[in-house]
NAD(P)-dependent dehydrogenase, short-chain alcohol dehydrogenase family
Amino acid sequence: MQRFSGKSVIITGAGSGLGRAAALQVAKEEGKLTLVDLNEAGLKETAEEIRQVAPNAEVLNVTANVANESEVENYVAEAVKRFGRIDGFFNNAGIEGKQNPTEDYGSDEFSKVVSINLNGVFYGLKHVLKVMKEQGSGSIVNTASVGGIRGVGNQSGYAASKHGVVGLTRNSGVEYGQYGVQINAIAPGAIMTPMVEGSLKQIDPENWEEVGKGFVEPNPMKRFGKPEEVGHLVAFLLSGDAAFIKAAVIPIDGGQSYKY
């Protein structure tokens, strides 16, 4: 399938993890990519991996902090300048933050996590929706989390921000369906990405792989998900194949969230 032939797709958090996996899938299907991340080296690595699987792919790298609205406005403008339109947007950039009980959770840390995970998603929606509404078409996928549909413990900033992403998705999905724009969210569970690895190392730097075994215990499949499994779901939701899915929050967690 070449579902993205001739189409322009923006992916934030594209320097690693889920963003990179989605970028590779869209590139394989001939999409034109605007890759956004604060990590310039990570963007270059993603672009190099894309060249290996899709040598003719058109790729624009934009270094940006999604918590800064002017930088968000800029990456949207750069995508339009280069490709003329925005057909898909994986609004994905985020961080996990430090792990502490709520009473010990730092106020500055809370603000930092929310500014990236929630404000960054809002800014992306705000500026991409202007383009898509004018076009009369487009598809957006926001990255929430199982931590956005239930509690996770010791992650006040992360859980609050991801619950906020769910709210933004449902609200904007209702608002913009009439304009031909579909807006949905994914809610990943235990997916082995650099962010999740870092989280496990916070708990026990020396034995994080053992910690990981307990981390997936609530998952009926008893394993971590793979970034490419998420990438396939994102590509589907960004494509015309998902045209009748609106304002949905779709878990991809091996069944973990359904056990509660």
About this structure: The mean pLDDT is 93. The first helix runs from residue 17 to 28. Residues 3 and 29 are 6 Å apart (CA to CA).
